[in-house]
Design goal:
It is built from 9 helices and 22 strands. Strands 4, 6, 9, 10 and 11 form a 5-stranded antiparallel sheet that branches. It has a 5-stranded mixed sheet with strand order 13-20-19-15-16, with no helix packed on it. Helix 6 packs across helix 7.
């Protein structure tokens, strides 16, 4: 009788025995998994219900980011007050938080406020909070709320006190002792990479229920707060420009006064619509951090015909922070800004006009003396006779001689000349060489003298008058006037006429 090998029997027995164990294990695992799954679902529901029932903390008034100065302890107990972002000069606000959600079974809420770094991970910051809600020299602020009566709290008189560099480590050690590390960042990193000119408020909220249990909410951080006195984070402001207008071609040198800026971290931006350009300056053009000398960029359109207003702002390169804009006006391009060309043109036009007038007057005054008397064989019509006189007792005193250019002779003057030409004595005088002295002496005497001058004249016609009349009638207007002008030169200055070459004899009415 042969026996199977023990190994085979053992192997078979092991197989027989192992199968049920593996089956029971599988069944137990499935049952356990089912139980755990059901318990997990109940736990998740309970956790979800608990989370949904929890209130939450919300920052309803953010702190004002810029304009506050961080002060050292040696500057006094007061470190100013953090203002609310939505406040105005006439209506100031403070940072505020509010508990939102169900608070029926909530007994109290404790909120701890501390300073953390601006950049994540938000580590505890060595600077301190000071104010009425801050325990003495603790550097943190602790407030307790009863949500049943007041869900909201505003932080009045909450200031930021900066720590001197040699005390930074001591301050951070105090935070560790107070168990202030909201985001569990640890203390492995040092302070070398910390921004000492910017902080955030961090709100840690602890809830206490009516049954005595406590819960903690996730920490909430505010917007950053920047130190006003730090040029790397301070608010930018353009105080004044020395001029606010310039040509559209650019290159206008402008002096700007501003709040403190870093010479290697600032730019000047000109904008209008989609157009943008930078003011031109170097780091050496930034003086004492409060003044910049720059040149305006050319405007996008060099052919503008009207003034164009653009905005000018300061912008920090590191954080793209910008100032409030001021206006600058681009003027249309003028190739003659001082109007030199226009003034020269006006001057040349006036000079040309004066020369033309002088030339015309010279021609009129020089052409007359150069003419010689001749007796053309033409007979003057009555309307062409040279002069006239007003009717009256003193006909010669009312004679008027006009310059050769004046062809509008009065008919009364022509009548007077015709009467004189009918006098033989007058004709004899015209043929006499003494005419140059006889006529002026008669004119100088005025109306009375002129009457005496002709007192002895024979009123009867001379038999030769026809010949004289025929010869004298050939005088043209211009020739007769030239005769008068030559004789006028012998008169005293007071009887000479103005530049118009007009001789006017005084009449009785003028005397």
């Amino acid at each position: 009788m042969s026996h199977p090998p023990p190994s085979s029997a053992h192997h078979h027995h092991h197989h027989q025995a192992g199968s049920p164990r593996r089956g029971r294990a599988c069944r137990m695992t499935s049952k356990t998994a089912s139980t755990i799954s059901s318990m997990g679902r109940r736990g998740e529901a309970e956790m979800l219900e608990r989370v949904l029932e929890k209130p939450k903390l919300v920052v309803v008034e953010q702190p004002k980011e810029r304009g506050m100065r961080f002060r050292y302890e040696c500057e006094g107990r007061s470190a100013g007050s953090i203002l609310g972002a939505s406040g105005t000069e006439s209506n100031k606000t403070q940072p505020a938080i509010e508990i939102e959600g169900p608070v029926d079974h909530l007994k109290k809420v404790t909120v701890t406020v501390s300073l953390v770094t601006k950049d994540p991970p938000h580590r505890p910051h060595p600077h301190c909070l000071v104010g009425k809600d801050c325990p003495n020299r603790s550097g943190i602020c602790v407030v307790t709320l009863n949500p049943q009566s007041n869900r909201r709290h505003s932080f009045a008189n909450l200031g930021i006190q900066c720590v001197r560099r040699k005390e930074l480590d001591v301050s951070l050690q105090k935070r560790r002792s107070q168990n202030i590390d909201p985001f569990q960042t640890g203390h492995s990193k040092g302070i070398e990479d910390m921004d000492m000119n910017a902080v955030r408020l961090c709100f840690q909220c602890e809830l206490e229920w009516e049954d005595g249990t406590k819960d903690s909410l996730s920490p909430v951080v505010s917007n950053p707060i920047y130190d006003k006195k730090a040029t790397t984070t301070s608010q930018l402001k353009i105080s004044q420009l020395n001029q606010y207008r310039g040509p559209c071609t650019g290159k206008t040198e402008i002096y700007m006064l501003c709040d403190k800026v870093q010479k290697d971290d600032i730019e000047i931006i000109f904008r209008r619509g989609s157009w943008k350009a930078n003011g031109e300056f170097a780091q050496t053009d930034v003086h004492r951090q409060i003044a910049i000398v720059f040149k305006t960029p050319p405007y996008q359109d060099q052919d503008i015909i009207e003034e164009v207003d653009v905005s000018v702002t300061l912008r920090r390169l590191s954080d793209q922070m910008e100032s409030e804009p001021v206006n600058f006006t681009y003027l249309p391009y003028n190739s003659d800004p001082y109007e030199v060309k226009r003034k020269r043109k006006i001057k040349s036009d006036i000079s040309f006009q004066e020369k033309a007038n002088v030339t015309a007057e010279g021609a009129a005054s020089t052409s007359a003396p150069e003419q010689t008397f001749h007796f053309p064989h033409a007979v003057m019509s009555p309307s062409e006779r040279p002069c006239s006189a007003q009717p009256g007792p003193s006909t010669l005193g009312e004679m008027c001689y006009t310059e050769s250019q004046d062809s509008n002779m009065d008919t009364d003057d022509l009548a007077l000349i015709n009467q004189l030409l009918e006098l033989p004595v007058f004709m004899d005088m015209l043929s006499d060489e003494a005419i140059t002295s006889a006529i002026p002496s008669g004119f100088d005497q005025g109306p009375d003298g002129s009457q005496a001058f002709f007192a002895n004249m024979d009123a009867n016609r001379n038999q030769n008058f026809g010949l004289y009349t025929q010869d004298f009638s050939h005088y043209a207007d211009l020739q007769f006037n030239m005769l008068v002008n030559e004789n006028r030169n012998l008169q005293p200055p007071e009887t000479q006429a103005s530049p118009s070459n007009m001789v006017q004899v005084k009449i009785e009415d003028d005397l």
